[in-house]
Write a structure and sequence with these properties.
heterodimer; A: alpha/beta; Rossmann fold; nine-stranded mixed beta sheet; two-stranded antiparallel sheet; globular; B: alpha/beta; 2 domains; 8 helices; elongated; binds flavin-adenine dinucleotide; electron transfer activity (chain A)
Chain lengths: 261, 318
């Protein structure tokens, strides 16, 4: 059984930042492995360690700089990685769900995995839709927001985490795409040995042409037209001063509210 | 072609709040486009649900009597068939966990663009203008789409639920559900997060988030909880890491709490967290980041390092 894990490098934002047009100024941006994808990788690697899965392949849409993040996934135990990048993607400032699916669909067709594990959402654009849209595009079954997975034969028995502390128990036919929720497992840190081994694993770069995807398929339908800091809805009283002063003000407040003595 | 189709949601026999919210969002859009507002309800006791969905602004409620509980294959088939029949310009669905499980499939099957987790919607001619958040709520964006048809999911609790009754027509929609295409079966539900402590009963909650960094640093927070005679709760990552049991988690998938005072320490205020605590009477945030989304709902804030403030606060009570 083969598992494909789409892995995204997400942009992280410093506490203080400036907006430059429809992006955050690069000076304030960092990069990290998407939190939800970390759990998806771990789930796939554990399935391989349990002997249920033979190969774990990751796929990332990203430029050369994302290789650092891809190596993290390889160091955690993925067997090989595919990175899709193309000049046509260089100028797209919002890769929407349709565009991502156009690319990932081609990768699924080429790799023919039995299972695709994506994260529930990504921490930067948080569409929360790529996994399920991909499943529909490739004709796989799916399950969204999965926080427990048991694979037996052609069936994935999952728990889907609903709102309010309720889980839905569902049986899903494989091949399937599952979107993985945090907390399903405990993602490992990459060991030094893992990091060394990752350097030797295959990281294959593919262009849109390699995958047979038309350039206009990735242009997307959504246009980002403005970005701004949200207006605060409440009048927040900010306690000023050093920690001793602010703590004293908070202590007064708690006493005043009658919740502490 | 400027009608709207909004999709209701129910679970275990109850319409969920977001059903009345999609009606509000749909009615607003219909007001702008001049089209009709159609509402769909799939599965369960559709007659009773249709009565409840006969709300102000709704022109027609379409009932699809198939199955009891949510099944994404049934929803995807029913909604795409309704969309084919009604040709709405906009489909409005909830950005709930179940919405996440069918809305992307509906958009893909209809081959239309998808705008998820919208917190604001407007139209300018044939252009849909959606407001969304990025980077965990640190920025808001406007996103525009030009298409004959657009699928949208809306964030919960952003639109006021419509309560006023309406005079909608109820129509049974005879969806042609292909049972061979149903590849998943819901076998049951399970409640999690029971246990000794009920954080929803507490008057004073000290809630800790990822700002705590290491499990052993929780001792500091426990000391504060003891000094204040408060109850300890947390954001999700603390529970995910196994540092606290699930019954301490505040939020969309955890518990909804309404204490007199909620002290959020090292918690950014992601929407799924806020869903569980925004009803607190007084919200205090201690966070190094003055731009953290929690500041938007905090009544009082300390923009400082928790490792400086918490010991000083303990000092105040000992
Ligand atoms: C379907 C779904 C359901 C979810 N359900 C829930 C839920 O029920 N509950 C929930 O909480 N989350 C839930 N989440 C997760 C949610 O999206 C966030 O990931 C989570 O709430 C973030 O937790 P946090 O604020 O503790 O961590 P972060 O977002 O990492 O924030 C940490 C904060 O600590 C601050 N900080 C760091 N160091 C310090 C310091 N020394 N002193 C002071 N401040 C510091 C930082 O500035 C930052 O604001 C859900 C997500 C999904 C997709």
């Amino acid at each position: 059984m083969k598992v494909l894990v789409p892995v995204k490098e997400v942009a992280t934002v410093e506490d203080e930042f400036e907006i430059d047009g429809t992006t955050i100024d690069e000076r304030y941006l960092g990069a990290d492995l998407n939190e939800w994808d970390d759990y998806a990788i771990e789930e796939a690697v554990q399935l391989e360690e349990d002997g249920v899965v033979d190969e774990v392949v990751t796929v990332t849409i990203g430029n050369e700089e994302t290789e650092q993040t891809i190596r993290q996934a390889l160091a955690k135990g993925a067997d090989r990685a595919i990175r899709v990048w193309d000049d046509a993607l260089e100028d797209v400032d919002l890769l929407d769900v349709g565009a991502k699916v156009a690319i990932l669909e081609a990768v699924v067709e080429a790799e023919d995995p039995d299972l695709v594990l994506t994260g529930v959402q990504s921490g930067d654009d948080s569409f929360g839709a790529t996994g399920v849209a991909l499943a529909e595009a490739v004709g796989y079954q799916w399950g969204a927001v999965v926080n427990q997975l048991d694979l037996e034969g052609e069936t994935a028995s999952v728990h889907r985490e609903l709102e309010g502390g309720i889980e839905e128990l569902t049986e899903i036919d494989v091949p399937a795409v599952l979107t993985i929720q945090t907390g399903i497992n405990e993602p490992r840190y990459a060991s030094l040995r893992g990091i060394r081994m990752a350097q030797r694993k295959e990281l294959d770069h593919q262009t849109l042409a390699d995958l047979g995807v038309e350039a206009d398929a990735v242009a997307g339908d959504l246009r980002l037209t403005a970005m701004y800091e949200p207006e605060s809805e409440s009048d927040t009283t900010v306690f000023e001063g050093g920690a001793d002063e602010t703590a004293a003000q908070l202590a007064d407040l708690l006493r005043e509210k009658g919740v502490a003595q | 072609m400027s009608d709207i189709l909004a999709v209701a949601e129910h679970r275990q026999g109850e319409l969920r709040d977001v059903s009345r919210e999609v009606v509000t969002a749909g009615a607003e859009l219909a007001g702008e486009t001049g089209g009709d507002l159609h509402v769909a309800v799939v599965g369960g006791d559709v007659e009773t649900f249709a009565d409840a969905l006969n709300l102000e602004g709704v022109d027609t409620v379409h009932t699809v009597a198939y199955g009891e509980e949510f099944n994404h294959d049934v929803y995807t088939q029913a909604i795409t068939q309704l969309a084919d029949a009604l040709e709405p310009a906009y489909l409005v669905m909830p950005n709930s966990v179940n919405g996440l499980d069918y809305a992307p499939a509906v958009a893909t099957r209809l081959d239309v663009p998808l705008v998820t987790d919208a917190v604001g919607l407007a139209t300018e001619g044939d252009t849909l203008v959606g407001t969304r958040e990025m980077y965990g709520g640190k920025v808001e964006t406007t996103t525009e789409v030009d298409a004959d048809q657009v699928a949208i999911t809306i964030r919960g609790a952003e639109w006021e639920p419509t309560e006023a009754a309406g005079d909608a027509t109820v129509e049974a929609f005879d969806a042609d559900i292909d049972e061979d295409a149903i590849g998943s079966t819901v076998t049951g539900f399970e409640e999690v997060a029971g246990g000794d402590v009920d954080i929803s009963e507490a008057d004073l909650l000290v809630s800790i988030g990822r700002g705590i960094e290491e499990e052993e640093n929780l001792d500091l927070i426990r000391e504060l909880v003891e000094a204040l005679d408060a109850t300890l709760s947390s954001s999700r990552p603390i529970v995910d890491a196994g540092w606290l049991p699930a019954n301490r988690q505040v939020g969309q998938s955890g518990k909804v709490v309404t204490p007199d005072v909620y002290i959020a320490i090292g918690i950014s205020g992601a929407v799924q967290h806020v869903a569980g605590m925004k009803g607190s009477e007084t919200i205090v945030a201690i966070n190094t980041d003055p731009n953290a989304p929690i500041m938007d709902i905090a009544d009082y804030a300390i923009h400082d390092d928790l490792f400086d403030v918490v010991p000083a606060l303990i000092e105040q009570f000992s």
